[in-house]
């Protein structure tokens, strides 16, 4: 009787472990495909149009309105006065 119980117990343990391993393999394959999709999104490069800013001006309405004209407008993102 004890021999049969041991064999049944070992059978269920083996079935449980193999099912657990199968689920882990499937979960890791899903995460791998998500990583590949994210990498593909990062590889896309966007081309920005070349805009001629030589005839533009920007007016900032904060306090006293400040006007920024070329060539200062070309460095708009790095200009401390405009931040």
How many structurally independent domains? 2
Record the strand order, biggest sheet: 1-2
| Spatial gap, N to C terminus | 83 Å
User: Radius of gyration in whole Å, from Cα?
Assistant: 32 Å
In round numbers, the mean pLDDT is 74
The helix fraction, in percent, is 40-55%
Q: Number of helical segments?
A: 1
How many strand elements? 2
If you had to describe this structure to a student in words, what would you say it looks like?
The structure is a single chain. The protein is mainly α. It contains one helix and two strands. The protein has two domains: 1-45; 47-83, no CATH class. Helices cover 51% and strands 7% of the residues. The chain has a two-stranded antiparallel sheet. The N and C termini lie far apart (83 Å).
Q: In short, what is this structure?
A:
With 83 residues, the protein is mainly alpha-helical.
List keywords for this structure.
83 residues, mainly alpha, 2 domains
Secondary structure elements and pairings:
Elements: H1 2-43, E1 58-60, E2 66-68
Antiparallel strand pairs: 1-2
